[in-house]
C-alpha cells in the first residue's frame, strides 16, 4: 500500500475547521485533525501572517475570522476566493 495522502493540505483542513467553528480552541482543532497542537498553532500563524485569518480576543479565548474575499494563494486558472473554496468544502447542514 502507498503512502498516506490527502486531497487537502493541513492548512486547508485547519481553515475548514475554523470555518465550521471560529471559536474552536487550537487544541480541539489538533485533536480533530490528528495533528499536534504546535503544528496547528504554526498553521494558524501562517494563515494569519498571510492575511487569510484574523485572530481576535474574546475574553480569555481567541476567535478567528476568515477573510473570504481574498484570492487563493495559487490560482486555479482564474482568481478564486477563499470564500468560494469554503463554500465547496463546508457543507451547510
UniProtKB/TrEMBL annotation:
Residue ranges occupied by any HTH marR-type domain in the UniProt entry: 10-60
A family per Pfam: MarR_2
InterPro entries according to UniProt: HTH_MarR-typ (IPR000835), WH-like_DNA-bd_sf (IPR036388), WH_DNA-bd_sf (IPR036390)
Source taxon at top rank: Bacteria
Gene3D superfamilies: Winged helix-like DNA-binding domain superfamily/Winged helix DNA-binding domain (1.10.10.10)
Protein name: HTH marR-type domain-containing protein
Lineage: Bacteria, Bacillati, Actinomycetota, Actinomycetes, Micrococcales
